[in-house]
Amino acid sequence: MHAWPASDVPALPGKGRDLRIHDTATGGPVTVDPGPVARIYVCGITPYDATHIGHAATYNAFDLVQRVWLDTKRQIQYVQNVTDIDDPLLERAARDGEDWTGLAERETALFREDMTALRMLPPQHYIGAVEAIPGIVPLVERLCESGAAYVLDGDVYFSVEADPHFGEVSGLDAEAMRLLSAERGGDPERPGKKNPLDPMLWMAAREGEPDWDGGSLGRGRPGWHIECVAIALDHLGMGFDVQGGGSDLAFPHHEMGASHAQALTGEYPFAKAYVHAGMVALDGAKMSKSKGNLVFVSALRRAGVDPAAIRLSLLAHHYRADWEWTDQVLDEAVARLARWRAAVSRPDGPAAQDLVEEVREALSNDLDAPAALAAVDRWAALQESTGGTDEGAPGVVSRTVDALLGVAL
């Protein structure tokens, strides 16, 4: 599966700062020190109802992570998956009377278009669940052989007791986990499981549903969590720098994925930091596919909204915050974009080197994009009120906003 084209990232003078970011597993900030090559895995979409603003907010957060690392002169290995086979996808295709493969291909193509328009840096490896199946099957077989998995009526389950570190990603107690498992695709009430929290690794073939050769497992299809584990281990290995996604993935997805990998390899941790973006609401409720209260990037683009304004709407909120999409949010972003473009269109302006360092400092401090926007706002206001004599300043500001915030002025 191919990703989308990368926009150029201007090189800035000097060198950026190391990233200090909130780690869900420890509950506090950690300094991420990747070495010369930074490794990041971000969980991708299930391709239907793409791309809504909640999606865009999440991928914007991890685009900022990449930009901070690039500014420190590091190389990046970024991996993202597409869950192009899963119950919700099949249910949507059945509801609409559509072939599930056609739905997945169309929505993945739309996601690529939206990411390109928003100038999100693409992953080096963009992998679909279906294409990962040949690598998933051997991992499930190994878990079975080691006693970390078991068969129940043809389905294969992972035993959470096989990982002594289970629970350390989310920090939740068993009851909270059970409730979230039931809400987020698990089956804690299924009779015969060793532990209600045990997640499925391989679903035996169901009549009328797609299935694949699972070797000794029989025909079927993979569970959700093992998909990402197989892809991450193949392309990044254990102990990569950042596992990212929305806050609703901390449990069960990232918790279970970490345990799968740790049980498979005997190594710890799966990822050095678990980073989660907040949820976006609309009309007082979390934006979600089940509720249907979605604002789509493609619809905004068709209505003539500049993608740079959409991106500024996202950047106006701290990535970990839960916030609400409103017309006012977009209107403020449109106005900000106009002010910034007017400011950098002049032949000279106030000196901008301090601005570069302010934006760097803000983003290195847990991706504080609102503080970075405020720094650019101050320079633009000074440009409007008093101007300046530095002929290179508007260009420096434009390149800084482009390189670190992904906004083309």
Any descriptors?
13 helices, 44% helix, single chain, globular, five-stranded parallel sheet, 409 residues, alpha/beta, Four Helix Bundle (Hemerythrin (Met), subunit A), four-stranded antiparallel sheet
What is the CATH C-level name of the domain at 307-318 and 325-405?
Mainly Alpha
Estimated structural class: alpha/beta
- Total count of strands: 14
At the fourth level of CATH, the homologous superfamily of the domain at 307-318 and 325-405 is Anticodon-binding domain of a subclass of class I aminoacyl-tRNA synthetases
Mean pLDDT: 97
Trace the largest sheet across and list its strands.
Answer: 5-4-3-10-11
Number of helices: 13
Which band does the percent of strand residues land in? Answer: 15-25%
Return the CATH architecture of the domain at 307-318 and 325-405.
Answer: Up-down Bundle
Radius of gyration, in Å, reads 22 Å
What are the segments in which pLDDT stays under 50 over at least 5 consecutive residues?
Answer: none
Form type: globular
The main sheet comes to: 5 strands, parallel
Distance between the termini: 31 Å
- Work out the helicity level: 40-55%
Helix-strand pattern: EEEHEHHEHEEHEEHEHEEEHHEHHHH
Q: What is the CATH topology of the domain at 307-318 and 325-405? A: Four Helix Bundle (Hemerythrin (Met), subunit A)
Summarize the structure.
It contains 13 helices and 14 strands. It has 409 residues and is of the alpha/beta class.
Write structural notes for this entry.
The chain has 409 residues and is an alpha/beta fold. The protein has a domain at 307-318 and 325-405: Anticodon-binding domain of a subclass of class I aminoacyl-tRNA synthetases (Four Helix Bundle (Hemerythrin (Met), subunit A), Up-down Bundle), CATH 1.20.120.640. The chain has helices at 53-71, 87-96, 100-117, 129-146, 174-183, 224-235, 250-265, 297-302, 307-315, 327-344, 353-364, 369-385, 393-405, and strands at residues 19-23, 28-32, 37-42, 75-82, 125-128, 149-152, 155-158, 200-204, 220-222, 240-246, 271-277, 280-282, 285-286, 323-324. The strands form four sheets. A five-stranded parallel sheet has the order 5-4-3-10-11, sandwiched between helices. The protein has a four-stranded antiparallel sheet with strand order 6-7-8-9. A three-stranded mixed sheet has the order 13-12-14, with helices on one face. The model has no long low-confidence stretch (mean pLDDT 97).
